Records
---
Amino acid sequence: MGNFEWPWQYEFPPFFTLQPNLEVRKKQLQAWCDLLLAYHKHHRIYTLDVKEAASSPLFSNAKLNRKLSTEGIQAVLEDLRVKGNIEWTDKGRARCLVMWRTPEEWGNLIYRWASNNGMTNTVCTLYELTSGEDTAKEEFYGLEDWLLKRALKCLERQRKAEMIAFDTNEGVKFF
């Protein structure tokens, strides 16, 4: 994993202040949303703690001595929630799940892998999908369990897979 490439806005001090003009703010929030998702994807982070994130490099540029305000962070997260990229895990909105790909997109990637590798009409354990050597080079390798199950549920709805439980394991059969 190489170094994360920050967008040009990250070096632009006004980026860290919510802009009063609604059109400018809309573009600013989109840039923040893109940055947050790219950052989480690059580092393969699936959760965000708001308090920790406020002082992390994501929202705080030490070189510029600038931070996005709590109000700004909440605006970015609300935008992402509306778009379906985050989901709050608590009523106080202190932690959220981050989805840089939707469960449907993950499901499509997994199904493409299963089809391309002759895995249709066979059963794979969830462990094999996210931790097996056959998937080590796949983008879904290391995918967290909660997101994997959501992706597989999407495939079930499309009648492309069926989740099954056996012994103490969980698996999926691809059609």
---
Amino acid sequence: MTDPSVNYQGLTPEEVYQTLATRQSGLYNEEVAKRQTQFGKNLLESKKQESKWLRFLKNFTSLMAILLWIGGLVAILSGTVELGIAIWLVNVINGVFSFIQENRAQKATEALKNMLPSYARVVRDGIEQKILAEDLVPGDILLIEEGDKISADARIILSTDLQVNQSALTGESNPVRKNARLVTDSDVTALEADNLVFAGTTVANGSA
């Protein structure tokens, strides 16, 4: 799926084909080559890691943090020492909390990278093929079955008794039933949609 603004769960399988310019028999090799050039590899972006100390200090040097340091200093100089110390403490607590959240998010991203499979099964030119997962492109027809790790975010277009373990994303250990039916409720988020599957999750039962 290429455009996060598209409500894929609210599309019929036929509309999914049209939106992603694909078909039941899969993409042609020429189309695959063009899309690989356009979209690049199916990989999570890796950024150069900053040191933990630098990332920690950045939480105390943002514009808002600097304003709070100054506000606390002004309060102390004006004679309200308790207020100034309280403002500084809020700044420290906020900075520490932000660093912890950022660190958790980074660890979650690294864990998800390790969970992504090396290979994927797709239909291209009407033929089932085994390819490197990093070579998947938007519009590929992905085949999944029990025991598979899912290689990319995708909209289900056909399924048989499919259940997916999404604990890597939600922490919920019980498998979630999935199907190809469109979701008409606009309040349902992508993660809650029964017709979407996500990279890094595992097929617990069935196929699609």
---
Amino acid sequence: MNPNNLTLAIIGLGYVGLPLAVEFGKKRNVIGFDINQRRINELQTGHDATLEVEDELLAQATGLSFTSNADDLKAANLYIVTVPTPITEHKAPDLTPLIKASETIGRTLQKGDIVIYESTVYPGATEEECVPVLENVSGLTFNEDFFVGYSPERINPGDKEHRVTNIKKVTSGSTPEVADLVDSLYNEIITAGTHKASSIKVAEAAKVIENTQRDLNIALINELAVIFNKLGIDTEAVLEAAGTKWNFLPFRPGLVGGHCIGVDPYYLTHKAQAIGYHPEIILAGRRLNDSMGSYVVAQLVKGMLKKRIHIEGARVLVMGLAFKENCPDLRNTRVIDIVNELREYNTSVDVYDPWVSPEEALHEYGIQPIESPQQGNYDAVVIAVGHQQFKAMGMETIRTLGKPEANLVYDLKYLFPAEQTDLRL
């Protein structure tokens, strides 16, 4: 295939797909496809509600068009799949979006076409799960009539410093020639350069261990925080002291959610178990990180009891619902664990987050965030997400949200000095 004759189709226009489509749309003809008509309508007005792409950057992608009509994909000869790969309630990989995207592509796939997957999967998933779907639906033969590549996404939602163009990109292809083409294609937009992996499985494995490693590092710090709490030692003070050594890794304790770190390890452990190996360390880290919401609430309740605050019927304000700071992304947010656990104690919980969509919060979690908290209203305040607005409020203002007679502030994100708060993780 001649690289100069490529028309791209990006399948899935979320946090990963849209920035990619915009960058390619500055240089090539790109079809941006998403099954969500509301998302398409919004993008056609020139605005991205996820806030990953600014309006002015969206306007610069003059080669980019948006559609929810699968028939429009027939104009493409190279497809890039950027759909989510979540997990089920039983912590198993949910490949449904990936399979459905492959079916959609299969219906328009032509001889010589290439399909590149960016969605996070376990090693082998592209060739074992996606390729058979493409073959069955299209009637074409893999590596004869069509080819595939894998180039894992490395998007960090809300991060305006590390963006798609300046993050090094891993690439791969199903044949040496396709690997070269995929690599050269991404090099058109990736200023940080690329790393061509030796196989698709290597690229898949590299992606899934990036977040597994981070998950385990955070699990270690979370466990240390629990230990230091029992010892009456301030965790942040310990980490600051240890951080003076040049090779100490600067991780911090906290809730581990989002579409990557809290999800990807389960893809790897699923594959490991499928081949007869039971991963010990990875699953131990996952269990510990998944338990942090319960631990936070247990500490909060103890702190309230020490201040003689009655738990049942208490009013608690949870500041933040997004899975990370300065970002509207609600996917797999573990703040919901705190909310649900507090409700088990029959407390009244208000959630305040100026970043998130109230409609999405209601749809995903049944939570109706409040527009603004009222002063003197709460027995306890939990700063669950480190949004810039919360830091700008200052502890003095946050304190006024609590009841004058007795209140407690739990700062999960170390936004304020230890002496200004009642509890820290």
---
Amino acid sequence: MKLKLNFLPYFSFIPKKLNTNSIIFKIIKVFFIAILLSNSIYLSFFANIFTQTISPFLAIWGLVLLLKSKNAKQYFWIGFFVGILWFWWIGLSSIYFNLNYLVPIIPLIVGLVYGVLFRLCYLLKFDFLRLCGIFALSYVHPLGFDWLNWGIFSVYGFFDPSFRGVLCIFLMTYFIYEGYISRYYKMAIITALFFIGFQYDEKKAQTLKLDYKLINTQISQEQKFLQENLSINSNALIQDIIRAINEKKELVILPESAFAFDLKNTKYELMLKELSHQITIITGAFNTEKELIYNSTYIFKKGSVYILNKHFLVPFGEEIPFFKDLIKNYFLKNIEEFAKGPVQSQYKLNNQIITNAICYEATKEQNYKNSQIIIALSNNAWFNHSTEYKLQQLLMKFYASKYGVSVYHSVNGKENAVILPKEKLSLKWSEYLNTLFH
């Protein structure tokens, strides 16, 4: 017997005689499904025990409604709106290249890309294969951009933040949708899948053995690289470090490109070396070597400096992956492309091995493998007043939970965070109920 999912009667504000074949209704329907598939990002602004509990089930509802969509156009438009709801903020960076007209165009292009990918999934003949295609989109990375990751569905809720948890979310979706087995078999299978995907334990991560301070700066992108502001901002950072010393901290961590220039052979490098006799300093800055420019992390320790260069570069922000001459001549005339450092850079602090990550790198799964502690530096001012930093955090939480890694994240913009592997939601509910009834 088929389990009917007729949600329309529960929304009293929808007119009873609504024409469900109208274009407006169809747009609302596909947009609603896209919202359900994006709920983790937007509910993260209101994270509490209730929103965390319902988030993965809203995603399952969205996947069920996706499977109920019976033509390629609906798949396309769901993918289109998913692309926009996840990545509408990408166009904001074009403001700082004096390409304001691209702000609405870039999200439309991204939406079209994911609309086409969703439509290709519809071409698979059977519903189960279509769902497998949607699941596989997590492994399709246009230009290496891998932020469409269904793993964020398991960051909240009862499911294990791993391949197992995400797979069970998708399998539960299929059996809720499937209409050719009896209701009781269906309920048994769905219940079994829930407990197979359940989070039974918490991974334990190493934490820093140093007394540290994360510095959060609020320097707008349009002001950050102006020559007249470099000394003012740099002097403010020096004062932040001195305050950390006065607070008896052993380590201070500053954001990506906190010093917005090549630090080598400057008065600030000398000052940081001197201060590093009292505190270990980690900061972002540029690094020029053999006419190549790197986005780098500088580590000042006991009067010495160590430089680690970024490997994973943002397409069209830090590197131009194709049509370089065309794009430089007509669009990004003043862009300075960065060179790539090693794939994974590590160093030691107090006999602990630390993996270095600069912004985009903090969301790369490869950096979580063979890591125990990650110190990440970001400049999120490119995308102020957007959902970018929340999606970044969700990806970091997923990988931190999957591999048992702790992440210490210092940011210009929003927001600093110390990220540890996911705690069991069942324990949170137990504590909440004990507090409620005692």
